[in-house]
Write a structure and sequence with these properties.
The complex is a heterodimer. By secondary structure, chain A is α+β, with helices and mostly antiparallel strands. Chain A is built from 14 helices and 8 strands. Chain A is 56% helix and 12% strand. In chain A, strands 2, 3, 4, 5, 6 and 7 form a 6-stranded antiparallel sheet that branches. In chain A, strands 1-8 form a two-stranded antiparallel ribbon. The longest helix of chain A is centred in the last third of the chain and has 33 residues. Chain A is elongated, with a radius of gyration of 30 Å. In chain B, 72% of the residues lie in helices and 0% in strands. In chain B, helix 5 packs across helix 9 and helix 9 packs across helix 11. The two termini of chain B are 29 Å apart. At the A-B interface, helix 1, helix 4, helix 5, helix 6 and helix 8 of A face helix 1, helix 2, helix 3, helix 5 and helix 6 of B.
Chain lengths: 349, 351
Amino acid sequence: MSRFLFLRARRHAGRWHWTDVAAYAYLALGVVLMFGPVAWLVLSSYKTQASLIEFPPSLLPVAQQETAVQGFAQPLPLFSATMDDGSHRVLAQARRIGLIAHMVDPGDPKQQVRVPVNKLAPVRRVALATENYTEPLQRFAFARYLSNSVFVTLVATLITLVINSMAAYALSIYEFRGKTTAMLMVIGTLMIPITIILVPAYLVIAKLGLVNSLWAVILPGAATPTGVFLLRQYMLTLPRDLVEAARMDKASEWQIYWRIVMPLATPALAVLAIFSIMWRWNEFLWPLAVLTKTESFTLQIGLNAFQGELQTQWNYLLAMTVVSLFPVAMVFVVLQRFIATGIANTGMK
Amino acid sequence: MTNASSEEQSTVVGSALHLPVLGRLGGTVLDIVVGGLARLVDVPMRTLQRLIGERRMAYVFLLPNFAFFSLFVFAPLVINVVFSVTGGEALFLSDRPYVGAGQYRYLFDCGSYLDPASCREDHFWRGVANTLRFTAFQLVAMVAFSLTTAVVLNMRIRARGFFRAVYFFPVLLSPVVVALVWKWILQRDGLLNAGLTTLGGHKILYFVDPGWAMFWSVFVSVWAHMGFYTLILLAGLQAIPADLYEAAQMDATPRWRVFRRITLPLLWPSLVVVIVLALIRGVQTFDEVFVLTGGGPGTSTLMIVQYIYETAFASQVQNFGLAAAASVALGVVLFVLTLLQLAATRRRSAS
């Protein structure tokens, strides 16, 4: 209920100003425009192929009801027929000859009625075509794409966290020659998008013999300047005394990094992990360039390839799109506030 | 892999990162997965430390990250320039003949730069023209909508968190999902045409008409990313001192004038950041539009990045040299824009 209390909100308990009305109208439109398309996608993903190509499309996933009738091998489709006297009867269609349908009463199969086709309306109910989800995972390589995507995302995020935090540790705890140069190099890489080094990065991957390997997707993006920055800024806020005390106790530098600084930096690591997961799960251009064999496709590339085929099987495509949306939706629901603040403050995405 | 402004990172940590549950969970998982490995690493690291001394360990910690940077960013940057002055179809540099400025000359060989058809590499110039058009439209729409949304969300609105989330959530979707959602809605027998026909209109073939294809490319891009820009502007709006508004209210200043005289000037630095980021994004546009229209109909939504990708990877003759030359040209543009961004962010943090 409380969510709808805003409908009665007043500015300073006074009257509605027209700008308030306009604001809420704008926001309401925004909800429809922003959530609507994705809701429509999810609804459509549960439709059968027949109802997907229907025009105009139905809002909910519906399917024509069928019933088994004695004396017929196949289940018969149910229709609501308008009789001559204006009454309605639910009948099953046995066969159709031209514009006349031969109908039977499902309760009493011997009773046959002939009804003109234009007096019939299909009986439909909400039905979820869950085979849209199960079939592409079995018949097509989508299960493979899915596991590839999960592998890439998890491994890449782990590598990113480890090597970025190591660099951040070096850049925040130590004073050493070349520190400024190192910082400048990190800042420099911040500005280089993959789009302008596409060809030579591919050459490097080819030289390493990694074309069509998932490592070709994982490795190039592992060292992120944004990650180094984020972690370094956080580590700078940690008290230096801790490090000094640990050195007194003869802890090795690696132990200080691993046992003291890393646990203290978990909040920053968590944010970087979320961003890394999002980046990797959604990545498109680079995997598109280095993965050409179906068995190495990630989910995003698989979806794109599937929709490019001559006859798109939209029912499968929509269902698999929803699958690829799912982890992101979960992250959004649970962590939206933190991501939003993170982006607002860092300008990174 | 991301273009981001780097300042103010320390505030993230203060405000966004109190995730006790997640932190603990992440910590436990990390501890189990990498904990064992770390203990294994400790012995050689300790030996190394004894050899080179405590302070030089900094280089050891920097090494993995910089190895990746060098291999996948710095080296490619240099190789890209080398690539762009060689010809032939081979991938490996040793097999490629030197052609000097040949690729660039070929790329820039135009009767008139205003008419892509008069160029030898007409797809590149169509890409340039489309990207410019796309960037211009996208910039205007992006600023208009994200500014409106930010201003509305900054009003005394109930359920503000909810509405903010609404505008923000497409930012998290992958470009492929974004494009497929809209492709599904805009197809011939899609939702939008159903609405049109019930209102008595005719079906429109959005991906057959070049004008519509460009319109929807811009629309979808704005739809997907405006939440990001809204957030930046919202942060800017919330930094404006409230007493300025209170003073204006005491003087019974009309709202429009308050907006023009207080909000807009004080928001200007954030707005500049948004404009420059939207410019950079626009120039780099590829994935959403590629999945949505495939660059079509014809070449009417073909962007520079798609040209580079197709020239290097998707065409019959893999013309790496030409693609590299095009990406060097793109890189120059992005470099200039990035300098602009740096100047803009510096001024913002200074003010």
